[in-house]
Design a protein that fits this description.
The chain is of the alpha+beta class. It contains 8 helices and 20 strands. Strands 1, 2, 9, 10, 11, 12, 19 and 20 form an 8-stranded mixed sheet that branches. Strands 13, 15, 16, 17 and 18 form a 5-stranded antiparallel sheet that branches. α1 runs parallel beside α5 and α2 crosses α8.
């Protein structure tokens, strides 16, 4: 007989939320994570924004699960006391050519079910956030902020409340299908399970390969941040975004207050080879000045300090512009389920992703 019913590999928000959704009094569920603490990678190295669902292709998993997961996340944060705020967000047009793109974004948002967005003229825009250069903006009232680290800890506590096992510092090195179950190998032990959920983030492709599962590639993509000095903390009222990169590779360097009182500027975007390289060849703080002043011309170099960095788990190479979340049964290995390529809006969507994973698990058990 298997040791457990479900092993979830990865203790970020995707794995934790999946465990919450999969947990059942009649199931034994265990989470494994390579690190000593939960959520040490992408889950806590981001802007901490709860996205509304404006940008993603209509009908995609990213669009659907963002809209669904957004309200689930607000409810969860309120119930578990996770610091958060429904602040709203401005996506701004800074040149006349941007206005047509902004109108198209409004249409896309409404097609995705985000029906509370509206275009603002300069007067309304400046009343919400003084100091902007923008001529017009799209207001997204459903966008908000969350303390990512507190969210991770609340999800982990929810798992413990549901008797989910937690094995930190446990790296999976191999696995195989045998005698109707999956034999999973770590550096210390073997675990026999009926289902494996691959929520390993940046290492999801390595985990699939370790089991002889579907071949796919995760492309690590670093985003770097600067921080604004404390004098800006009372001046930035809500997140301010430019229009997304025309390349499709990101939402642009934006100004984002945090629930902890700071103000972030970023992230940048750079595809790289290593999955653990957060610091080599970091951008100088001067690189953030031009994108900052494009939004708020009063920002000067003296207002900027280097911040942290994060690495997105992209499911597409740099020459492509979009890949959807990959949440599905493996086609080669029965009982192996992937929740891979979970970049933005993965934080917002985590509970909805967990629900989808739970339905796939139920199809196996």
């Amino acid at each position: 007989m298997p040791d457990v019913d479900v092993v979830i590999i990865g203790g970020g928000v995707t794995g934790l939320a999946s465990a919450v959704a999969v947990a059942d009094p009649n199931r034994n569920v265990v989470i494994l994570d390579r690190h000593v603490r939960a959520g040490l990678e992408t889950s806590t190295h981001n802007s901490g924004v709860i996205h509304a669902g404006l940008y993603y292709p209509t009908g995609s998993l990213k669009a659907r699960l963002c809209v669904e997961g957004r309200e689930q996340l607000y409810d969860f944060c309120a119930r578990r006391g996770v610091p958060h705020a429904r602040t709203g967000k401005l996506v701004v047009a800074t040149t006349p050519g941007d206005e047509a793109r902004l109108a198209a974004l409004e249409i896309r948002a409404k097609e995705n079910g985000v029906d509370d967005v509206r275009l603002l003229g300069r007067g309304e825009l400046i009343a919400l956030q003084p100091g902007l250069t923008a001529t017009t903006a799209l207001l997204s009232p459903s966008t908000g902020l969350v303390a990512a680290e507190a969210l991770v800890q609340a999800l982990l506590q929810e798992c413990r409340d549901r008797d989910v096992g937690w094995l930190p510092a446990t790296k999976v090195i191999g696995g195989e299908r045998a005698n109707g179950a999956l034999d999973l190998r770590t550096e210390r032990e073997r675990i026999r399970t009926r289902v494996v959920v691959n929520a390993a983030g940046l290492y999801a492709d390595d985990v699939s390969a370790a089991f002889g599962g579907d071949e796919f590639k995760i492309y690590p993509c670093r985003g770097e941040y600067a921080e604004l000095t404390p004098r800006w903390r009372e001046r930035i009222k809500l997140p301010v975004y430019p229009l997304p990169h025309l390349s499709g590779h990101g939402l642009g360097v934006h100004v984002t207050p945090t629930v902890g009182g700071g103000v972030l500027l970023g992230p940048t975007i750079r595809f790289q080879t290593r999955k653990d390289d957060y610091e080599d060849d970091r951008l100088a703080v001067e690189a953030f000045l031009e994108p900052a002043r494009a939004l708020m011309p009063e920002i000067g170099l003296a207002d900027l300090r280097l911040g942290g960095s994060g690495i997105r788990a992209k499911f597409h190479p740099p020459e492509e512009s979009f890949a959807d979340f990959h949440i599905s049964h493996d086609t080669r290995v029965s009982g192996l389920i992937h929740a891979a390529g979970i970049d933005s809006p993965g934080l917002t969507s985590c509970l909805a992703i967990g629900g989808r994973v739970a339905r796939l698990v139920s199809e196996v058990l």
